[in-house]
Amino acid sequence: MAAGEEKILVSVRVRPLNEKEKTRNDGCDWECVNNTTIICKSHNLSDKPSYTFDKVFGFECPTKQVYDDGAREVALCVLSGINSSIFAYGQTSSGKTYTMSGITEFAIDDIFVYINKHKQERKFTLKFSAMEIYNEAVRDLLCEDHNTPLRVLDDPERGTVVEKLKEETLTDRNHLAELLSICETQRKIGETSLNEASSRSHQILRLTIESSNREMSSSESSATLAASVCFVDLAGSERASQTLSAGSRLKEGCHINRSLLTLGTVIRKLSKGKNGHIPYRDSKLTRILQNSLGGNARTAIICTMSPAHSHLEQSRNTLLFATCAK
Ligand code: ADP
Ligand code: MG
Question: Is residue 242 scored above 70 in pLDDT?
């Protein structure tokens, strides 16, 4: 890691007020005073009105800028053989999917530009897999059977693996575009049958890149690089704080609490550079992402929030999460 590069890059993106919020005259509580600081204009929050992060993106900021300043450097580590992960964290309807799908597209474009530029000297192999974690059950988003959850296993050589997860070897950019559209369809099908699942499920898209020098002699094994980048669209963060009522709703709530809370704990410990025990094993999400979080992996977290007064409490929770990740 070069000087000045932080292991965990934390930024905040505020979306514009939507039509519904405007129609009901929902006021805007927040002001981005510069590109690193956001303040709360609301009076009843005198305890901590100002928050500073690596980057703050106001509602006028296009996704390209969020990508360039908040994710690009971390995503492109994969080309140097360094694992990385990009997360969207925030309450439901704050803009996680909007932000993460844009970032994924921009990153993939950059990766293909790089590969096309270097394919004379290096041989690249790209693999893609996609999964969804709902209720601590893992489902393959490239597979039509979504009734059989996949098992998460410990492999002595490969570490934590998701058994039977489809991994497609990519032929080109269009192939990846097709796979992304399959994922989106699968996610929507799941959402319809599971009723609003997107607010409760975590989606992980993983791109693995292996490359080797075309003129490599067998002694030069260091010329071979392999790493993956994960794009993670998290469940709504209200699931980490809300106590849900009875039955399966409660179970869902508990599990999502577990994954989000464990992720929060893991990220907090990593950001503080603590050497002690890091509880990756406490949730499916952190088990699967362990190699993309620990070691020399780089992480970018984009926290999305609504500016509306009616969401003040959740926005404040999101900023507290972001603060702890720093
Ligand atoms: P989430 O995934 O957090 O539930 P979405 O990404 O689905 O939220 O966003 C909710 C709605 O707000 C969508 O209609 C989306 O297009 C819109 N939206 C989110 N962020 C922005 C933004 N920065 N600019 C414009 N529209 C946005
Ligand atoms: Mg979403």
Answer: no
Q: Give pLDDT, residue 124.
A: 95
**pLDDT at residue 29 in the model:** 87
Q: What's the CA gap between 270 and 93, in Å, rounded?
A: 28
- Looking at the 3D structure of the chain, how many domains does it have? 1
Ligand 1 pocket test target in 12, 13, 14, 15 with most atoms within 8 Å of CB:
15
In a domain, 1, yes or no: no
Is residue 307 lining ligand 1, measured as CB closer than 6 Å?
no
Domain with 109, as residue range(s), is 8-214+223-325
Q: Is residue 124, in this structure, part of any structural domain at all?
A: yes
- d(CA 199, CA 285) in angstroms, rounded, equals 15
- CATH at 170: 3.40.850.10
Q: Is 93 in the pocket of ligand 1 (CB under 6 A)?
A: yes
What pLDDT is stored for residue 134 in this prediction? 87
Provide the 10 A C-beta neighbour count for residue 324: 14
- CA–centroid distance, residue 105 to ligand 2 (Å): 16
